[in-house]
Amino acid sequence: IFYIVMLKGAYKMKVLMFNGSPKVKGCTYTALNEMAKTLNEEGIETEIMHVGAHPQGSCMGCCGCSETGECVYGGEVVEAAKKLKDVDAVVFGSPVHYASVSGNMMGFMHRLAWSAGKDLKYKPAAMVVSARRAGTTTALDEIAKVPEFLSMPLINGNYWPMVHGNTPEDVLKDEEGLQIVRNIARNMAWILKCIDFGKKNGIEHPVEEPKIKTNFIR
Questions:
Q1: 3-state SS of 5-74?
Q2: In sequence order, what are the residues at sequence separation of 6 or more whose Cβ sits closer than 8 angstroms to the Cβ of residue 40?
Q3: What is the SS3 assignment for 70-101?
Q4: What percentage of the chain's residues is helix, strand, coil (to nearest 5)?
Q5: Res 215: pLDDT
Q6: Distance (Å, rounded) from C-alpha 28 to C-alpha 18?
Q7: How far apart are CA 12 and CA 116, in angstroms?
Q8: Is 63 left (phi over 0), alpha (psi -120 to 50) or beta?
Q9: Short-list 193, 177, 189, CA closest to 38
Q10: How far apart are CA 185 and CA 37, in angstroms?
Q11: Nearest to 83 by CA among 105, 112, 54
């Protein structure tokens, strides 16, 4: 028992969680907080960063970040990019707006992925969406595009990562939804510990082949 306690105490990893809701402590936060509590129980630090309160705008494809090292439009994207350097995994959380992630979250994710993709790459990711009723699976499909593009292992639970409710109090009554996010948190803790163990024993992430770009007319 003593060995297990010491082993858990040896991990000093951190997960950065992005709250894409306009509300600081609404339904999305409630789901993320449930996940954070479980990660904390596993000895992993967490931070919930609110990114949904201010207009984020979309990536303009200006490539300014390739010259400056950060998104030239500033804001939460630049702040998040700095935080990414010191975290081991991320969670993307968003409310469902019109069967989609929130507009602010979409813009934030696209700008972050383009300007700070190097610091997202290979880090495990998870996601969760909150909805009053429907539109959850299409929103999840949108979020998944970023981890899929950046070789980020996508951590799952025992069902699609969603909670339902019109208020935080409603979400707290969604027993299945909260159980799903707890399972995701435990799976993420497990993967992070496996990765950490591998690094300590000389196992690094794969070496990526040079990018090949093709299109459909040649």
A1: HHHHHCCCCEEEEEECCCCCCCHHHHHHHHHHHHHHHCCCEEEEEECCCCCCCCCCCCCCHHHHCCCCCC
A2: 46
A3: CCCCCCHHHHHHHHHCCCCEEEEEEEECCCCE
A4: 45, 15, 40
A5: 86
A6: 10
A7: 23
A8: left
A9: 189
A10: 9
A11: 112
d(CA 89, CA 153): 10
d(CA 155, CA 147): 10
CA–CA distances in Å: residue 213 to residues 122, 145, 181, 218: 21, 18, 36, 11
Residue 29, CB-side half-sphere exposure with 13 Å CA sphere? 16
Q: What is the pLDDT of residues 10-21, one digit of tens each?
A: 558 999 999 999
Specify whether the CB–CB gap between 143 and 129 falls below 8 A: yes
- Do residues 126 and 91 touch, judged by C-beta distance below 8 A? yes
Whole-angstrom Cα distance, residue 214 to residue 218? 8
Amino acid at 141: D
Question: Which residues are registered as beta bridge partners of 164?
Answer: 131
pLDDT in tens, 47-84: 999 998 888 999 999 999 999 999 999 999 999 999 99
| Neighbour order of strands in the sheet with 45-50 | 45-50, 14-19, 89-95, 125-131, 162-164
